[in-house]
Write a structure and sequence with these properties.
Layout lengths: L5 E2 L2 H7 L7 E12 L4 E6 L2 E6 L13 E11 L2 E11 L5 H18 L1
Parallel strand pairs: 1-2, 4-6
Antiparallel strand pairs: 2-3, 2-5, 3-4, 5-6
Length: about 110
């Protein structure tokens, strides 16, 4: 069974570092690079980047510049975090400012009522 992906921003993943190893996460970012030979994608959000391994995502149809939502497990590779994606979907057109505002409100709500 799979855990649900905890919604995090790339910046939060980078801040937490390897303590998140093995965690299931859900992140958004723009596809900046794709290496088909290695099945590696680089996504970016607000200047922060994360390496995503997409070998489990079939078919993965990369379109550099597109906004993606990726769900998978965090691992470390050569002292850096990588996301082993099991789901990657195009969310181009999503209002990022509204998404971030909604996530902030949801986090406040969860803190108050959990």
């Amino acid at each position: 069974t799979f855990k649900h992906g905890k919604i995090l921003f790339i910046s939060e993943i980078l801040q937490e570092g390897t303590s998140l190893r093995g965690e299931s996460v859900r992140v958004i970012g723009r596809l900046r690079e794709f290496n088909a030979a290695k099945n590696e994608a680089m996504i970016e959000h607000k200047g922060d980047t994360l390496l995503v391994l997409v070998s489990l995502v079939i078919p993965f149809v990369p379109a550099v510049g597109k906004l993606l939502q990726v769900i998978g497990e965090l691992d470390s590779d050569d002292h850096r975090l990588v996301l082993r994606a099991r789901v990657a979907r195009d969310i181009e057109g999503m209002d990022l400012a509204l998404y971030e505002q909604t996530l902030d409100m949801w986090r406040v709500f969860n803190t108050q009522f959990s």
